[in-house]
């Protein structure tokens, strides 16, 4: 690991890079690391192999500071991934029938109001609860291809990986700040306390959202879903040493964390070691983008036949994504090699793979609902 003190003026942040010398990292992302390291009150940064440029700062990093920086978390407060075991054996999965049924995830969640009331999350509405959203969010049926000793899954098992966040709730919280976060917030200021209360509510809402999506998907598949782990990767929280900000950096749940590949590549369930304090208790949450959305439109053919081919993944699975732009922007080619990311994490003893999960059905968006 490389530790380098960088910053501006008298303020110095320690930067720890958890990727090997040969790992491809876009230069603009490392420039953003250098910039954020000079922000007031920034003390430590951990960068991971899925690092890539973001709107307000790099994605795939954790930051420790003495104040709150809402722009590091961004609008999708509480975004994360939850992995669920399904009691449906892989050999019984009919891909086409299951894909038709999962289209119902496009519609509203009839149980959203009751679920939100039971969760007692203040000041947020049920709008969007139980739905996936756009961008890189998804609900994916996966089959276990390989396991290591101690894995909570067996080869041939099915599981569900849900990637979603706080939808319009978090976006509304962030927009209401109206850019007032330019210099960060003191945690004990009125603005800081108000943001923290809304942030924490959005994190809870996002976790509930992932659970509702899984419940709906399991109902569509005529099976039960049991939570294995749920990890947020867009959030902040207080620690003994300051305020930890995670942007595209996951904190383990029960010692476990999912790491997403792409619709064309395996994902992984990781056992997290937590042994290196310089990692700030965080690690990669996915493969990380190699090409931004605009660049993908210049790299992919977008004819009718090309788009039709994208309804199948490279591993024989199904892809439900009926937004032409999103089909291209979220192609597997947009992402780095997830296996290489896992190898970097293992090389630094941050985490080790417990299970390899192959995408069988990836749901992103549909024009119409599924069959009953």
TrEMBL record:
<feature type="binding site">
    <location>
        <position position="267"/>
    </location>
    <ligand>
        <name>GMP</name>
    </ligand>
</feature>
<feature type="binding site">
    <location>
        <position position="163"/>
    </location>
    <ligand>
        <name>Mn(2+) 2</name>
    </ligand>
</feature>
<dbReference type="GO" id="GO:0170057">
    <property type="term" value="F:RNA ligase (GTP) activity"/>
</dbReference>
<dbReference type="GO" id="GO:0006396">
    <property type="term" value="P:RNA processing"/>
</dbReference>
<feature type="binding site">
    <location>
        <begin position="233"/>
        <end position="234"/>
    </location>
    <ligand>
        <name>GMP</name>
    </ligand>
</feature>
<feature type="binding site">
    <location>
        <begin position="285"/>
        <end position="288"/>
    </location>
    <ligand>
        <name>GMP</name>
    </ligand>
</feature>
<keyword id="KW-0692">RNA repair</keyword>
<keyword id="KW-0342">GTP-binding</keyword>
<feature type="active site" description="GMP-histidine intermediate">
    <location>
        <position position="285"/>
    </location>
</feature>
<dbReference type="Pfam" id="PF01139">
    <property type="entry name" value="RtcB"/>
</dbReference>
<dbReference type="GO" id="GO:0042245">
    <property type="term" value="P:RNA repair"/>
</dbReference>
<keyword id="KW-0436">Ligase</keyword>
<keyword id="KW-0464">Manganese</keyword>
<keyword id="KW-0547">Nucleotide-binding</keyword>
<dbReference type="GO" id="GO:0005525">
    <property type="term" value="F:GTP binding"/>
</dbReference>
<keyword id="KW-0479">Metal-binding</keyword>
<feature type="binding site">
    <location>
        <position position="137"/>
    </location>
    <ligand>
        <name>Mn(2+) 1</name>
    </ligand>
</feature>
<protein>
    <recommendedName>
        <fullName>3'-phosphate/5'-hydroxy nucleic acid ligase</fullName>
        <ecNumber>6.5.1.8</ecNumber>
    </recommendedName>
</protein>
<dbReference type="InterPro" id="IPR001233">
    <property type="entry name" value="RtcB"/>
</dbReference>
<feature type="binding site">
    <location>
        <begin position="136"/>
        <end position="140"/>
    </location>
    <ligand>
        <name>GMP</name>
    </ligand>
</feature>
<dbReference type="GO" id="GO:0003972">
    <property type="term" value="F:RNA ligase (ATP) activity"/>
</dbReference>
<dbReference type="InterPro" id="IPR036025">
    <property type="entry name" value="RtcB-like_sf"/>
</dbReference>
<feature type="binding site">
    <location>
        <position position="233"/>
    </location>
    <ligand>
        <name>Mn(2+) 2</name>
    </ligand>
</feature>
<dbReference type="GO" id="GO:0046872">
    <property type="term" value="F:metal ion binding"/>
</dbReference>
């Amino acid at each position: 690991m490389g530790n380098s003190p960088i910053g501006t003026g008298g303020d110095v942040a320690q930067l720890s890079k958890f990727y090997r010398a040969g790992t491809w990292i876009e230069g603009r992302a490392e420039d953003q690391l250098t910039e954020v390291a000079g922000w007031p009150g920034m003390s430590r940064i951990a960068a991971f192999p899925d690092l890539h440029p973001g709107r307000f700062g790099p994605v795939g990093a954790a930051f420790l500071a003495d104040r709150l920086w809402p722009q590091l978390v961004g609008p999708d407060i509480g975004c994360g991934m939850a992995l669920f075991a399904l009691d449906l054996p892989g050999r019984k999965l009919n891909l086409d029938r299951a894909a038709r049924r999962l289209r119902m995830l496009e519609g509203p969640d009839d149980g959203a109001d009751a679920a939100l009331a039971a969760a007692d999350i203040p000041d947020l509405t049920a709008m969007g609860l139980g739905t996936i959203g756009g961008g890189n969010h998804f609900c994916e049926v996966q089959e276990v291809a390989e396991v290591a000793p101690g894995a909570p899954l067996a080869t041939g098992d099915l599981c569900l990986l849900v990637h979603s966040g706080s939808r319009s709730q978090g976006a509304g919280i962030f927009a209401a700040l109206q850019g007032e976060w330019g210099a960060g917030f003191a945690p004990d200021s009125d603005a800081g306390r108000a943001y923290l209360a809304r942030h924490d509510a959005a994190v809870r809402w996002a976790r509930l959202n992932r659970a509702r999506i899984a419940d709906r998907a399991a109902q569509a598949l005529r099976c039960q879903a049991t939570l294995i782990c749920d990890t947020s990767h867009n959030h902040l929280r207080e620690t003994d040493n300051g305020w930890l900000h995670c942007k595209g950096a996951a904190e383990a749940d029960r010692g476990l964390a999912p790491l997403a590949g792409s619709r064309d590549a395996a994902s992984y369930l990781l056992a997290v070691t937590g042994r290196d304090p310089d990692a700030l208790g965080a690690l990669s949450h996915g493969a990380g983008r190699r090409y931004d959305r605009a660049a993908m439109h210049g790299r992919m053919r977008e004819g009718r036949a090309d788009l039709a081919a994208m309804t199948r993944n490279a591993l024989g699975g199904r892809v439900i994504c009926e937004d032409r732009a999103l089909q291209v922007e979220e192609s597997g080619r947009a992402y780095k090699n997830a296996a290489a990311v896992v190898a970097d994490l293992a090389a630094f003893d941050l985490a080790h793979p417990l299970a390899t999960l192959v995408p069988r059905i990836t749901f992103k968006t549909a024009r119409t609902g599924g069959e009953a």
